[in-house]
Amino acid sequence: MNNRQQTLLITGGAGFIGSNFIDYFTKQYPDTQILNIDKLTYAGNLDNLREVDQRPNYRFLQGDIGDKAWITSIFEEYDISGVINFAAESHVDRSIEDSQAFVESNVLGTLTLLDAAKKDWEEKGELDIRRFHQISTDEVYGSLGEVGSFSETTPYNPRNPYSASKASANFFVKSFGYTYGMDVVISSSSNNYGPRQHQEKLIPTIISHALEGKQIPIYGDGGNVRDWLYVDDHCRAIDLIYHKGHTLESYNVGGGNEQTNKDMAAQICSLLDEFVPEYRQPYSISSYRDLIKFTEDRKGHDRRYSVDDRKIKQELGWKPAVDFHEGLKKTMEWYVSEWKNKQTL
Ligand SMILES: Cc1cn([C@H]2C[C@H](O)[C@@H](COP(=O)(O)OP(=O)(O)O[C@H]3O[C@H](CO)[C@@H](O)[C@H](O)[C@H]3O)O2)c(=O)[nH]c1=O
User: Fold this and answer.
1) Whose CA is nearest to atom 30 of ligand 1?
2) If you measure from the C-alpha of residue 284 to the centroid of ligand 1, how many angstroms do you get, rounded to a whole number?
3) What are the residue boundaries of the NAD(P)-binding domain, all occurrences included (predicted)?
4) What pLDDT shows up at residue 3?
5) For a pocket test of ligand 1, which of 134, 219, 258 has the largest count of ligand atoms closer than 8 A to its C-beta?
6) pLDDT tier for residue 1 given thresholds of 50, 70 and 90
7) What is the CATH topology of the domain spanning 6-194+231-254?
8) Residues carrying an active site annotation
9) How far apart are CA 228 and CA 9, in angstroms?
10) How far apart are the CA of 29 and the centre of ligand 1, in A?
11) Could you read off the pLDDT of 54-70 as tens digits, one per residue?
């Protein structure tokens, strides 16, 4: 790769959404050079990129967005045409145990990256045309009761350390737009699902525990609601927002599939009963549903997220394309096949 070719910088591309996005983007735009930088924490996995690795428009470097000297050297070495910042500590339960890493990666890391981009693009006289796209979350808006949805004008009300760190990062991103005239945009999506999601999240937990005959932990009464978005639909939304979204704007991205956690667990167990009934035999259960166990609740557990995404639909013409049951089936098949591969190793 010629380093001075214009290059789109993707951070955190070894994680779940980042790796799916790179897979999508390198195929969609074969003439755009992608540089993926990732610290490779516990949640980053280069296996997620094994199919992408050989593509001529892709390159990977290991490093931390919060390492000022290193991130500055990236902007010196490459002609970075834009940044999409996926890099983040993302797991709510971990943030409740210890929030330090969340402030370091999500707040200070984002700030260091913004600063490096700002300095480089200012020197080039292109601060207002090279874009910084922050990947954010619907959790910044807080928690809902049974009715209503978050729109882009809903005031931020983060209620756990993870969402507080993401909200804080968004404020910094916006502030660089207002203060320095930097071209910034933010997307806030609902819960993603699909292949390559880390084991710690709800859907991979349900599938892996079921296959291993372990109890499937559902926090509290299981009535908490999340809006599920298939990761490929999210990738198309990011593409549109990065290329066509208006500067200084935020865009919500939702799946339109609100599910309680207990319904989600029951649906996945039914799919597993249908497709891989044989794996339940050693555990003497008649359905994987028998493994569902209501456990102690998450502290401060947000009750319901619901996303009003009319803005991206109306302004940018996006809509989700993957049917929820199809998406769930594809996801289940991917995890079952990964699990089978591990058994034969
Ligand atoms: C891991 C786990 C989770 N849960 C519950 C907690 C939540 O109500 C729901 C989903 O939990 P999680 O998969 O951890 O995801 P959640 O806390 O909603 O946050 C996700 O979705 C957010 C977007 O809404 C992202 O910003 C976060 O990075 C992502 O982790 O399932 C359980 O009941 N049992 C579990 O074992």
Assistant:
1) 91
2) 29
3) 9-331
4) 58
5) 219
6) very low
7) Rossmann fold (3.40.50)
8) 138-139, 162
9) 27
10) 32
11) 999 999 999 999 999 99
300 alpha carbon – ligand 1 mean position (Å): 13
Across the range 218-228, mean pLDDT stands at 98
Whole-number mean pLDDT of the chain?
Answer: 97
What is the average pLDDT across 180-204? 98
**Is the minimum distance from the CB of 201 to ligand 1 under 6 angstroms?**
yes
Q: Do residues 23 and 46 touch, judged by C-beta distance below 8 A?
A: no
Beta strand 79-85 with 225-230 is: unpaired
ipTM: 0.99
Q: Mean pLDDT, to the nearest integer, of 180-193?
A: 98
Q: Is 219 in the pocket of ligand 1 (CB under 6 A)?
A: yes
Our separate counts of H helices and E strands in the chain read: 11, 12
Helix (H) or strand (E) holding 94: helix 92-97
- Considering the four listed CATH numbers 1.10.760.10, 3.90.25.10, 3.20.20.10, 1.10.3490.10, the one that applies to the domain covering 202-225+259-303+322-344 is 3.90.25.10
DSSP reduced 3-state for 293: strand
**Would you mind telling me the total number of residues written for the chain in this entry?**
345
